[in-house]
Specification:
- Its EC number is 2.5.1.16.
- This is Polyamine aminopropyltransferase.
- Catalyzes the irreversible transfer of a propylamine group from the amino donor S-adenosylmethioninamine (decarboxy-AdoMet) to putrescine (1,4-diaminobutane) to yield spermidine.
- This protein is of the alpha/beta class.
- The protein has 2 domains: 55 residues, Spermidine Synthase, Chain: A, domain 2 (Roll); 214 residues, Vaccinia Virus protein VP39 (Rossmann fold).
- The protein has 9 helices and 13 strands.
- The protein has a 7-stranded mixed β-sheet with strand order 9-8-7-10-11-13-12, sandwiched between helices. A 6-stranded antiparallel β-sheet has the order 1-2-3-4-5-6.
- It is globular, with a radius of gyration of 18 Å.
- It binds S-adenosylmethionine.
- The site of S-adenosylmethionine (SAM) has 25 residues, from strand 6, strand 7, strand 8 and helix 5.
Length: 289
């Protein structure tokens, strides 16, 4: 490899990808770059990593990996599908690796999944290089829309039973997916007993994202409950999601026919138990991050 792929550095003959949090660099060793493209929205890369296997990397940030991407995808999909008693119409915003869609489609009562991804390159690269995450077969219930999620939400009809916001970090094209007008549009799209789940960033490194999201959702929904998962490839590992609901909040038992590797009924219920230091960070009066 003569030209150094974007976002990688060569150290003693090895390639490293470095994630840059304020005051903290985390580096992952890359053994092979399988795909690299600059799309109109971001730099898209598929690479083999030493600790996490094959990974989808957007603008130099790991999004999902073969070794542990199931943790994030199961927790963003099975929690809402277990809280809502029978979600037939599901909307996913973002999620171009198709991992969340794949989990949602495990439920036989789901009749349609609209997935709105801004960047077609992410879907094509994931289908080609990450079949373990994206799934190999095309499910006729899945409809792909290549469009900005905020624009789709502003013009779509609904109603949806469950909406999943599987957005990248709140920088670049995903910034709009963390703002109040977007959540207001989603609230309009939900059925009267509908609910949504949004990924809410690292409560350790970016508690301000959680605070902003909680404030926006609490103005719109009577039930707003953050929950945690441990995702080893994300900075600090600790990751927050937020459930916002009009009626349902209890996690019902997962159907034994649905196979998961992280999201069991017990794990999903326990995920809502937040350590006090996390609550301190994400409440409105918490540290500025
Ligand atoms: N699991 C990931 C994480 O939190 O690191 C996120 C998964 S998924 C890859 C995020 C997707 O959101 C990306 O494919 C990105 O292209 C898409 N995206 C970013 N901004 C968007 C927007 N405004 N509308 C729709 N999709 C968007």
């Amino acid at each position: 490899m003569n030209r150094l792929p974007k976002h990688l550095t060569r150290l003693g003959g090895e390639l490293w990808l470095t994630d840059d949090e304020p005051g903290l660099l985390t580096s992952v060793r890359i053994t092979d770059v399988l795909f690299e493209a600059q799309s109109p929205f971001q730099h898209v890369m598929i690479a083999d990593t030493v600790p996490f296997g094959r990974a989808l990397i957007l603008d130099g940030i790991i999004q999902t990996t073969v070794a542990e991407g199931f943790i994030y995808n199961e927790m963003i999909a099975h929690v809402p599908l277990s809280v809502h008693p029978r979600a037939e119409r599901v909307l996913i915003i973002g999620g171009g690796d198709l991992g969340a869609a794949r989990e949602v489609l495990k439920y036989p009562f789901v009749r349609s999944v609209d997935l709105v991804e801004i960047d077609q390159t992410v879907v094509e690269a994931s289908r080609r290089y990450l079949p373990e995450i994206a799934g190999e077969a095309l499910d006729p219930r899945l409809r792909l829309h290549f469009e900005d999620g905020a624009r789709f939400a502003a013009r779509a009809d609904g109603p949806y039973d469950v909406i999943i916001v599987d957005a990248a970090d709140p920088i670049g094209p995903a910034t709009v997916l963390f703002e109040s007008p977007f959540y207001e549009a989603l609230a309009r799209l939900l059925a009267e007993d509908g609910l949504l789940v949004a990924q809410t960033d690292s409560p350790f490194h970016h508690p301000e994202t959680a605070r902003r999201t909680l404030r926006a959702l609490e103005a719109l929904f009577p039930i707003v409950r953050p929950y945690l998962a441990v995702v080893p490839s994300y900075p600090s590992g600790l990751w927050l999601f937020t459930l916002a609901s009009r009626r349902y909040e209890a996690v019902r038992p997962l159907d034994p026919g649905i196979r998961t590797r992280y999201a069991t009924t017990d794990v999903m219920r326990a995920a809502f138990a937040l350590p006090p230091y996390v609550v301190e960070r994400i409440r409105p009066e918490g540290p500025s991050g």
